[in-house]
Amino acid sequence: MASKPSDFFIGVVDFFSIVLPGALLSFLALDFAKERVFGWIMPPIGGGMEGWMAFAVASYLLGHFVSLVGAAFLDKVYDWTYVAYRRRRGDRLYKYVGELKQRSLGDHSNITNVYKWARATVRLQSASATQEIDRLEADSKFFRSMTVVLVIFIAAVARRGTLLVSSVLLLLSFWRFCNLRWKCTGTAYLCVAVMEANPASREKTAGA
């Protein structure tokens, strides 16, 4: 079966949102791992390919753990702060798409939120719009994970005089995460609204 561009793109999403933050955290924890993990809890490892394999596995695992922590905590902080600020005067697009979700799912509309429904709707009807949403979501997840990594970094190096610079990077990373997440959800809502107003704009996805 021939591979599709979207199959490769999902790999790119994983790379930016999981592997890269995990690799940075693995690098920061390298000395600790050599002293407290390998040769103590786990068998010692050598250099060369063996070391690179251990680094790759650690990057993937830590990346998933960082993403999990970010989803559990930073998404809520995003809702309480950035979303609340942006919607302080209302959000007509969000309200309109919410009404479309209510009409589409009826009594079962509470099974998912507006964004997940909008993203699923776009995924079924437009491959090109889906790629744009996936790109923004991957970027937002990268900065969300980077925010978690920077929190860990600040806790580890707070006594080394780098607190100010690290804190500035932390705030910028969280701000960028919020900005990209807002663009991602807004793009999904706008795509659904356009497709509802103009059915001819809908595409047949590659898997349809």
- Mean pLDDT over the full residue set: 83
Helical residues, percent: over 70%
The overall strand count is 0
Q: Percent of residues in beta strands? A: under 5%
| Global shape | elongated
Low-confidence stretches: 5-10
Tell me the count of domains: 1
Task: Provide a quick synopsis of the model.
By secondary structure, the protein is mostly helical.
Structure description:
The protein has 208 residues and is mainly α. The chain has one domain (5-201). Helices cover 77% and strands 0% of the residues. The chain has seven helices and no strands. The protein has helices at residues 5-28, 30-36, 49-86, 92-105, 114-125, 127-157, 163-197. The radius of gyration is 21 Å and the shape is elongated. The two termini are 15 Å apart. Residues 5-10 have low confidence and may be disordered.
Layout of secondary structure:
Blueprint: H1 5-28, H2 30-36, H3 49-86, H4 92-105, H5 114-125, H6 127-157, H7 163-197
Helix pairs in contact: 1-3, 1-6, 3-6, 4-7, 5-6, 5-7, 6-7
